[in-house]
Design brief:
This protein has about 375 residues and is an alpha/beta fold. Helix content is about 25%, strand content about 20%. The protein has one domain: Alpha/Beta hydrolase fold, catalytic domain (Rossmann fold, 3-Layer(aba) Sandwich). The termini are far apart. The relative contact order is 0.13.
């Protein structure tokens, strides 16, 4: 009996390892739901005890029994997060990954390089973390802190009682428990993500790429590097606004110019412009004299005539933002910058579509499926 158990265990391990080794050959839609993982990218470097791998990216795949949509969706999380942002919510509801699988899409969910199940190595750079108070102010309890004008509209974070959105509330504590360390240097993160994003698309083929927050730069850069493989780009409150950060300082000033975080306009590292640019100093930016409306930031845009972003012009693109998010004062600046560069993004302004009360972490909020439905309606227009 013991010998039989050993044989069965060995066979089971062989099947598991074989399945993982052959994942590149697994095709969605074989009549059975499929779920698994693989890694892309990565290289060996010399570590203290011998060769180690760094820069690899974990990719989890979820396929419905029957794929009915033409292109898979790749979901990429933001700063201090992992792919769990898309696989469930801190109060135990289904996440966007399952929603899109149920709609017939093959879905790939990643952990960015050096994050979560994509191992970090000290040679890549030092790590930082978000504090609980930072998350309360920006993501979960914005209405109380009112650091930007629209924060008072935030109503959709899950939880109940006086501690909702704060330490001590079980939903918040679950959310904070999911936070991980991350590299705080934009140029390093963007370089790692561009490499890994290109490697993933080279492996799986044409796809719709969905990013959130910090990974917005990964969306621009991956689309720039693989314009023929990114069939569409969904940017959920992408890293921004263009050129300079906006610092949220509360009343009465609310919005102030921050650091020069994106010297290439949309990113900290080179992008393909026409006419070509070899140094960001060749790009000329100017700040609007007057904001486009009340409670909005003044945008940084290119001086006319604006250089174009030819690779980003090749694909459908949607920008998504919530009415109560810290992005609300400046998301229009990203849209204007893209339009100036010859890109024609759709703008899914949730508040104007009747979807109200959402902050930055909208995929985790109470109405997350209403937002997913608005995005999915747009994805069905992708040819």
């Amino acid at each position: 009996m013991k010998r039989l158990f050993q044989i069965c265990a060995a066979l089971w391990c062989a099947v598991v390892f074989a399945a993982q080794a052959q994942v590149g050959g697994i095709k969605p839609g074989n009549g059975h739901p499929q779920q698994g993982y693989f890694f892309v990218g990565g290289k060996y470097v010399e570590g203290k005890t011998g060769p180690i791998m760094e820069r690899q990216m974990y990719v989890e795949y979820r396929f419905p029994a029957k794929v009915t949509q033409k292109y898979p969706i790749v979901m990429i999380h933001g700063a201090a997060q992992t792919g769990t942002n898309f696989t469930g919510t801190p109060d135990g509801r289904k996440g966007w990954a399952e929603y899109f699988v149920e709609k017939g899409y093959a879905v790939y969910v990643v952990d960015q390089p050096t994050r979560g199940r994509s191992a970090w190595n000290e040679s890549v750079g030092p790590l930082i973390r978000f504090s609980a108070s930072q998350l309360e102010q920006r993501f979960t309890n914005a209405a109380q802190h009112k650091l930007w004008p629209q924060a008072a509209l935030h109503t959709q974070w899950p939880g109940e009682g006086p501690k909702k959105g704060q330490r001590g509330d079980p939903v918040f504590d679950q959310f904070y428990a999911s936070q991980v360390q991350y590299i705080g240097v934009n140029a390093t993160v963007e370089t790692l993500n561009r490499e890994a994003g290109a490697a993933l698309l080279d492996k799986i083929g044409p796809a719709i790429v969905m990013t959130h927050s910090q990974s917005g730069a990964m969306g621009w850069l991956t689309a720039d590097a693989r314009p023929d493989l990114v069939r569409a780009l969904i940017q959920v409150e992408p890293s921004g606004p263009p050129v300079r950060d906006v610092d949220d300082v509360g009343a009465p000033d609310y919005l102030r110019d921050g650091a020069l975080a994106r010297p290439w306009g949309l990113s900290a590292i080179p992008m393909s412009y026409a006419p070509a640019v070899s140094d960001p100093a060749q790009l000329s930016f100017v700040r609007q004299d007057k904001a486009d409306g009340p409670d909005l930031a003044r945008c940084w845009l290119q001086k006319a005539p604006a250089r174009q972003l030819p690779n980003l012009q090749k694909m459908p693109m949607a920008i998504v933002h919530g009415e109560a998010s810290f992005h609300a004062p400046f998301e229009h600046c990203t849209v204007k910058f893209l339009q100036q560069a010859g890109v024609k993004p759709a703008w899914i302004d949730l508040g104007k579509q009747g979807i109200h009360g959402n902050g930055h972490m909208m995929m985790l909020e109470k109405n997350n499926f209403a937002i997913a439905a608005a995005i999915e309606e747009w994805t069905r227009t992708v040819k």
